[in-house]
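Sanity check

After download, print the first record. It should look like this:
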Amino acid sequence: MNLYEHTIVVKQDVSTAQIKKLTEKYSKIVESNDGNVVQTENWGLLNLSYIIKKNKKGSYIHFKIKGGGKIIKELEKNESLDQNLLRYMTVKVKKFDLKESYFSKQEERERKEIKKN
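Expected structure tokens:
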């Protein structure tokens, strides 16, 4: 089994209910292809580095997936047809970092660090 980190960028005008549906849709695609979604993170609405399809911002959704290569092919085939998506990217990794949330608010991270000390 391979480990993948997969991120999609959704248009800025898509509602939170639609984002939830997209997350469920792509999770079901992974599971129907004998894969497993280990973790899903909603990074929220972030500024894009450059304008993509007349959008200055995008909602980021990050999946940590365990499975074979055919899962990624199926995901990307469906994502290329989805009008709500701006971009998607998949990276094969050796292991997952499930403890750290890199896109949580800075204040929350500082509180966690204070609790550790």
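If your output differs, re-run the checksum step. Summary of this record's structure: The first strand starts at residue 2 and ends at 11.
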